[in-house]
Write a structure and sequence with these properties.
The complex is a heterodimer. In chain A, 73% of the residues lie in helices and 6% in strands. Chain A has helices at 2-16, 19-51, 65-76, 89-98, 111-116, 134-162, 168-172, 192-231, 235-240, 245-282, 288-294, 300-326, 331-354, 362-370, 374-382, 390-413, 416-445, and strands at 55-60, 80-83, 103-107, 123-127, 181-183, 186-188. Classes of the chains: A mainly alpha, B alpha/beta. The A-B interface holds A 2-3, 5-7, 9-10, 13-14, 16-18, 228, 232-234, 236-237, 239-244, 416-417, 420-421, 424 and B 17, 51, 54-58, 76, 79-80, 82-86, 88-95, 99-100, 103-104, 106-108, 110, 135, 148. The structure holds adenosine-5'-diphosphate and magnesium ion. Magnesium ion binds at residues 46-47, 87, 163 of chain B.
Chain lengths: 446, 244
């Protein structure tokens, strides 16, 4: 135990201070919230600018009481209305540009006449798309907002004029629809899209994504921690200490898992910030707390199963990482090997996050079921909606067996006799490559 | 126990890597209190012999006994009493010298007081002074070697196996390490080391073995070898032995 603690301490300290692991870690942690922040501020600032002070140029061909009412109404809604005097569109656009406005509304002749005769009146909107920036979209949505509110007020006036005793809404929108959701025999006072967002956020996106992040970081840490022993030629010494190779393997697994958990917590924080900003920006800003009370929480045994499958998945990828690291002469080689190995392992998990397993081709389905990393995602995804799927429960003994196999194979690889021979081969290849390079230099010089 | 006070007994040791026979029928005995030197050119098989003694490699055939234990069947019993310095041993870049020593000491010793005594001893042996608290990536080659030698000797091993302890070091670092090894043996340790610096070995070792192409060609105390072959130093002796 004491020996193991010392070894784990060594792993954690050496890894934690290795700048190379931060490249994989810091980038998403810093970049994600930064991206979210930038997007939301640029978006909201331009929309705000659009809504409040957006300069709308108006060319009024009608010049009647009703067209004037419309303009005053728009002004009272916060739009900065500038009338332009022109006889044709081209000069009107030029003037609008001179006024520094990128929206032009043209009120057609007969505006009032059409309205009082219960015909639809024509209003044309021109948006100047000078730059493909969010500013034009802001101006557009501001004009849209002003127009739809005005249109609704005019409609109210017209309906009241026909019959002052009825509610205009009953004419315009005769169905009063209220939607509720049924989840596991329970009626929930919220429409499905709200629940869907919640589920999507919580159980189907956030947790699987976190699991993916965790497995990718942990495998990277384990591979780096082992490859660096080859790179710095410390492994041979380590193997002569009075510890078993299981201690060495376990220390690597624990050390990288501890760091990966810390890393994932940081990442989740960053991701939540990012996601919240994204949601706020796209208008989905429902208060998170409100609806989570509406949702029944998953049964506790599903959490236990989730945890068990998660631990197995992490052990599986981590020992794979140690094996990759042990077979690599340096960290760079380990990273490129990792890319080759980890992508096919993670693809099924991604597929599951966005699709239905049943719809995948058989070969991919088999791949999904073959990998321990799939089961926690399978469980997290279905935890809310259905009883835990049968195959996910079967997956636990299966993953356990496979994980033990990989752990055993990795510990075999850590036998000095094997490792020194592998390293000897690697080093030989390195020097041979160097010799080839020297020869090439000689021939090009000579 | 095999032999009276033999620390190492090697009999008819053979090690093959595929077609290559790196060690060919080598027999050796190392007694307590000796500094035993394996000398020979690169590729002679010195490292392979030392790795087998350190229980890192398995013999292809032959018998190896360390401290009374069979090096193949009882490797786990041998490890706590030996220490091994690999010829190209590196350091953990991001640990300080002191942190590294403490981690190793806690692997070897069960009590914290013993572990910290070992660390203090190692710091004294290394002669690194305040630099022991710096990250090891800032160390020069000589400093890295000194911390590794200190690490190997601080555990008071009954047998220290040092592969090329002074190779590639400048005179000051090399001299420091030779002094440390001598002191360790005076305090009761036994050392087996390899070198291709014949003059250094002549000064340091009680007994040497000439290793050439996997064979031990000649063995004895430096002075006895010189007398027997009628030469003035070990270098000449080695050349005389290998050319006949
Ligand atoms: N792990 C290994 N696999 C294959 N060949 C090896 C291995 N280790 C050493 N050798 C070969 O064995 C021979 C002896 O090497 P070594 O014991 O390192 O010699 P020395 O330490 O005297 O320079 C060399 O030819 C070397 O190339
Ligand atoms: Mg050697």
């Amino acid at each position: 135990m004491r020996k193991l603690v010392s070894l784990v301490e060594k792993e954690v300290k050496d890894l934690l201070r290795d700048p190379r692991i931060y490249i994989g870690l810091v980038v998403p942690v810093i970049l994600m919230p930064l991206l979210g922040f930038l997007m939301s501020t640029s978006m909201s600032s331009s929309i705000e600018a659009g809504a409040k002070g957006v300069k709308i140029a108006v060319l009024d061909y009608d010049k009647t009481v009703l067209s004037n009412t419309f303009l005053n109404l728009s002004m009272s809604l916060g739009a900065d209305i500038r009338k332009v005097d022109a006889t044709d569109l081209e000069t009107a656009v030029d003037e609008a540009r001179n006024l520094g406005s990128n929206a032009l509304i043209v009120i057609g002749k007969g505006f009032e006449n059409d309205l009082v005769n219960f015909r639809r009146a024509s209003v044309e909107v021109y948006i100047v798309m000078e730059t493909m920036s969010l500013g034009s979209i802001g101006a557009y949505s501001a004009v849209e907002g002003v127009l739809s509110v005005s249109s609704k007020i005019f409609s109210n006036m017209l309906i009241s004029k026909l019959n002052p005793n009825i509610s205009p809404d009953a004419v315009r929108d005769p169905f009063n629809i209220s939607t509720r959701s049924i989840l596991k025999d329970k009626i929930i006072e919220a429409p499905p899209q709200v629940l869907f967002n919640q589920l999507l956020m919580g159980y189907s996106i956030m947790i699987p994504l976190l699991l993916l992040m965790l497995s990718i970081t942990v495998v990277q840490f384990a591979a780096t921690a082992t490859a660096v022993e080859n790179e710095e030629k410390t492994l041979e010494t380590l193997l002569t200490f009075p510890v078993t190779r299981y201690d060495i393997l376990l220390a690597k697994l624990l050390g990288s898992s501890i760091l990966a958990v810390i890393g994932s917590i940081l990442f989740t924080g960053g991701f939540i910030l990012y996601f919240n900003n994204m949601l706020a920006m796209s208008g989905f800003n429902f208060p998170a707390g409100d609806f989570s009370q509406l949702l029944p929480s998953p049964p506790p045994e599903s959490f236990i199963l989730l945890a068990a499958s998660l631990i197995l998945a992490i052990l599986f990828v981590t020992s794979l990482g140690v094996a990759i690291g042990a077979l690599s002469s340096d960290v760079r080689m380990a990273n490129s090997l990792l890319g080759v190995v980890i992508v096919p392992i993670m693809i099924p998990s991604f597929l599951m996050m966005y699709g239905d397993l049943g719809t995948l081709p058989l070969a991919l389905q088999l791949l999904v079921y073959a990998l321990p990393t799939s089961y926690p995602i399978m469980m997290a995804k279905d935890m809310m909606m259905t009883p835990i799927p049968f195959e996910a429960i079967l997956g636990i003994p299966y993953s356990a067996a496979l994980t033990v196999l990989v752990l055993y194979a990795t510990s075999m690889l850590l036998a000095p006799e094997k490792l020194l021979t592998v390293q000897y081969g690697l080093r030989l290849r390195g020097t041979r490559r160097q010799r080839v390079r020297e020869l090439e230099n000689q021939t090009t010089v000579g | 126990m095999t032999g009276a006070r033999s620390i190492v007994v090697v009999r008819n040791l053979v090690k093959r890597f595929g077609d290559l026979t790196a060690v060919d029928n080598v027999s050796l005995k190392i007694e307590e209190g000796e500094v035993f030197g394996l000398i020979g050119p690169n590729g002679a098989g010195k490292t392979t012999i030392l790795r087998i003694m350190a229980t890192l490699l398995l013999p292809t055939s032959g018998y190896v006994n360390i401290l009374g234990y069979d090096a193949v069947k009882e490797a786990g019993k041998i490890r706590p009493f030996i220490s091994y310095l690999a010829e190209d041993a590196g350091t953990y870049r991001n640990l300080s010298g002191r942190e590294y020593l403490l981690i190793v000491a806690r692997i070897y010793f069960d009590s914290n007081t013993e572990a910290s005594r070992a660390v203090e001893e190692a710091i004294r042996i290394s002669g690194l002074g305040e630099r022991v608290d710096d990250k090891m990536k800032t160390y020069s080659k000589g400093m890295k070697r000194r911390i590794q030698v200190a690490r190997a000797l601080m555990t008071r091993p009954r047998l220290a196996i040092l592969d090329e302890p002074t190779a590639g070091l400048d005179v000051f670092h090399a001299k420091h390490i030779r002094e440390v090894v001598s002191r360790h043996v005076k305090e009761g340790g036994t050392v087996v080391l390899s070198s291709h610096n014949m003059l250094e070995v002549e000064y340091l070792c009680t007994r040497v073995a000439f290793v050439h192409r996997g064979h031990v060609l000649f063995e004895g105390a430096p002075r006895a070898i010189k007398n027997e072959l009628g030469v003035s130093n070990l270098e000449e002796a080695f050349i005389k032995v290998t050319s006949r």
